[in-house]
């Protein structure tokens, strides 16, 4: 492929990206902010209380096992007169709870939270994509390095750093969702292995409530990040697009 053709294709890509970014700032961000505000006002996020995200684990509590652990008496041929430390030890085997499979089937995921996650994940992904687009847009607008008249360039660099921080934070929201499922699976496995211990069951409930609050907070934070990025870019749009003012006007 000729060098001129390659150069033109790269320039077309840059021009297209700049056009998309400016459209995103002027129209896309305000629309997204309104959309997220409407989502936060829906019953799923505004009216749902913690009790609505509780879910049965489908792990029954087995009946207690009674164990007779008394030492043999003299009538049974044992030596009841010997001290307890010297009496013959009688071992009793108590069946454990090795979990190969559950008698009631599998333990389901928390359905209300899964419904929320299906809605929240595309919102997070869109913020990552939009932040990446803005990051490249400002990178293309940064002029070549020169002495003096660099105030506008510093505005570009500060804005770029803010966008990169938003991008990293949005990517971390994905990790938060993955860690929830992993943490819940570990606690549920404890419930399956030790079904008599109520604290493990309570830990699952607390984890689900925490994730519900986290998902609501993620949507709020995404809305806030769109608002802050839109605000900082609109306020500094002139400096971002033309970081170095021309001195020609001052000659006349």
TrEMBL record:
One of its GO terms (cellular component) is proteasome activator complex. Residues 6-64 form the Proteasome activator PA28 N-terminal domain. This is Proteasome activator complex subunit 3. Residues 107-249 form the Proteasome activator PA28 C-terminal domain. One of its GO terms (biological process) is regulation of G1/S transition of mitotic cell cycle. The gene is PSME3. GO terms for molecular function: endopeptidase activator activity. InterPro entries: PA28_C, PA28_C_sf, PA28_N_sf, Proteasome_activ_PA28, Proteasome_activ_PA28_N, Proteasome_activ_sf. Keywords: Proteasome. PANTHER family: LD45860P, PROTEASOME REGULATOR PA28. Residues 66-90 are annotated as: Disordered. It comes from Bactrocera dorsalis (Oriental fruit fly). Belongs to the PA28 family. SUPFAM superfamilies: Proteasome activator (SSF47216). It comes from the Eukaryota.
